[in-house]
Amino acid sequence: MEPDNLYRLLMAPAAATPDQPAVVQPDEDGVLEEISYRALDDRIREYATVLDGLGLDVGDRVVVEADTSAAAVAMLLACAKLGLPFVPVSPQTPDSRLRTILQSVGPALHVRADGLADRELAEVGGRGRFGRDGLVVELPPVRGPRRRRAVLGTDTAYIVFTSGSTGRPKGVVMSHRSIVTFLRAMRADGLAGPGDRVASTSPLQFDFALFGIGVALSSGAALVPVRREQLDSPRRMVAFLREAEVTQVHGVPSLWRPVLRHDPDLLSGLTRLRSVVFAGEEFPLPELRRLQETLPAARLVNGYGATESMAASFTDVPNPLPAGQDRLSIGHAHTGAEMTLVDQHGAAVTEPGQVGEIYLRSPALFTGYWNDPGATAGVLVLDPIEPRHGQKVLRTGDLARLGEQGELYFIGRADFQVQIRGNRVELGEIEGTLTRLPGVTAAAVSLVPRLGNHVLMAAVVLDDPAAGLDQAEAIAFCAKELPAYMVPRSVHALSELPLTENGKVDRAVLNRTLAAPR
Ligand SMILES: Nc1ncnc2c1ncn2[C@@H]1O[C@H](COS(=O)(=O)NC(=O)C[C@H](N)c2ccccc2)[C@@H](O)[C@H]1O
User: How many CB atoms lie within 10 A of CB 40?
Assistant: First the structure.
């Protein structure tokens, strides 16, 4: 019985169905090509041979700078095959952040996909480029002693850096055993299967992209990487998804905003689209309803979870979404894991309607934060309900409400809980109210420092930008729906919400935008 290894799991279909497409992507002339499992495995072995010749040791890191593509997937899996943890970063990563990651993780090698513009970086370790014609090592890594030969299931498969709410990037260390266990659970839950064509739209340094690669290839499906430039025009995005005959699309909620606002009817052309998996933050309900209306036959799946366990639950959105429902269920944990709610006294929440912090028990948890045992201790904790076993569980920092059947309803980040005049305020609840205002398609609320105090300020995105927003009416609407201390001081219409590189609402930029004198 061979140890768990991400390469072996994802290339298993190469033995069974070698001629099936593993990756579908445009070639140099923009013509869609299908790279078979066999061809992908050949590419992996070709890269692995070059890597193996460098005398690296199990556990030596390789920073892989690329967008998702067949070559990038081959590079990640070549590293996995040799027990070299890959650190995926996207080409859009600013030099300063890449420098921080390089200094923190001290890679033996930094490889970049062919065609990327040069960067002004003082090199840390070796350097190389990879693409269709192989892996070229431009600067060999310094050879260290090879102390370990076996690649074990507990060894690190990858390290993903998340900005984290504190801003300092933390490296989430994921072992082969954890990611393989997680992907086997996805296969058991039937998220994708052979014949599926899974479109992945997130940048490679966001584990949502690794999720798409893992789910597609471990299921014998085809991965369809969607490049950024295809995403900013609704027409181009839909045309690409249609031409590639995509059956499942993975993306953050903001992926759908442009096409839902400007050209929703285009979506009816996606006749092969069977499912949409969204993750990363709450999907504003007016937009989710419109997505449901335009894709009536598609299964919409709410993927919830953190990089520290890759994900925790996948819950079908009820179709149609009941009119009165104002929070989305994040259901129950995926096969083999369990989410429990714990109140501030450390006791289990068992009463439906009560709120607690989500703790995740799972065999697929991360090993810890790279070189940061302190931060790790705050998140991988003894099970508060029964600490005597010594089992570590993931303290998610997310609050949820318990439903009648034990399903959970996401409320928000515990650190997004703000205290206003002694009252606990859920920014998400105010956002949910604002999205119920006719004409509003999305909303984000910030607590902005103002003259030595803090005031609630809101930004909304309108269905029709030309319609303009009646601020007094918006505030009056909130005053009708919310307790006084939760009513925003001001509501501003923005043409769009500022987004992070991973496509989530960028709260830091939003704060600055709202705090700027009008
Ligand atoms: N469906 C949600 N509703 C509402 N808040 C959410 C949701 N999914 C995350 N989040 C939030 O985002 C946090 C995790 O952020 S993260 O570490 O960058 N990871 C992700 O966003 C994606 C996650 N690793 C993933 C990857 C692949 C499939 C599913 C989920 C969670 O703790 C939640 O606060």
Answer: 25
Count of alpha carbons within 13 angstroms of residue 296, beta-carbon side? 3
Which residues line ligand 1 at a C-beta cut-off of 6 Å? 162, 207-208, 211, 279-282, 302-307, 310-311, 396, 398, 410, 413
Helix pair 70-82, 6-16: axis angle to 10 deg:
120
Three-state secondary-structure class, residue 384? coil
480-503 per-residue burial string, b: 16 or more CB within 10 A, e: under 16: ebbeeebbbebbebbeebbebbbb
b/e per residue 405-419 (b: at least 16 CB within 10 A):
eebbbbbbbeebebe
Cα–Cα distances (Å) from 305 to 6, 52, 339, 413, 502, in that order, read: 20, 35, 10, 12, 15
Helix (H) or strand (E) holding 288, with range, is helix 285-294
Per-residue model confidence (pLDDT) at position 518:
62
Ligand 1 centroid distance, CA of 406 (Å): 20
Joined tokens for residue 122: 């003082």
Asked if residues 39 and 17 have their Cβ atoms less than 8 Å apart, the reply is no
Structure tokens at 404: 């009648």
Q: Which amino acid is at 383?
A: D
CB contact at 8 A, 110 and 126: yes
Helices (H), 161-262: 176-188, 207-218, 234-243, 257-262
Pick the residue whose CA is nearest to atom 20 on ligand 1.
280
For residue 44, the CA-to-ligand 1 centroid distance in Å is: 30
- Compute, in angstroms, the gap from residue 183 CA to the centroid of ligand 1: 16
Nearest Cα to Cα of residue 391 among 362, 368, 371: 362
pLDDT digits (tens, 9 = 90+) for 298-335: 999 999 999 999 999 999 999 999 988 888 999 999 99
ipTM of the complex: 1.00
Residue type, position 71, single letter: A
For residue 64, give the nearest of 213, 246, 218, 186 by alpha carbon.
213
For 129-143, give one letter per residue: b (16+ CB within 10 A) or e: bbbeeebebeeebee
For residue 166, pLDDT over 70 is answered with no
Out of 161, 307, 427, give the residue to mutate to test ligand 1, the one with the largest number of ligand atoms within 8 Å of its CB. Answer: 307
Helix, strand, or coil (residue 383): coil
Pocket probe mutation, ligand 1, options 90, 158, 304, max atoms within 8 Å of Cβ: 304
Reference 339, options 316, 357, 353; nearest CA is 357
DSSP lists the bridge partners of residue 449 as 454
Atom of ligand 1 nearest to the CA of 396: 32
Beta strand 21-26 pairing with 32-36: antiparallel
Cα 352 to Cα 404: distance, rounded to the nearest angstrom: 5
Does the pLDDT value for residue 419 go beyond 90?
no
Quote the CA–CA distance of 368 and 381 in Å, as a whole number: 11
Single pTM value for the model: 0.96
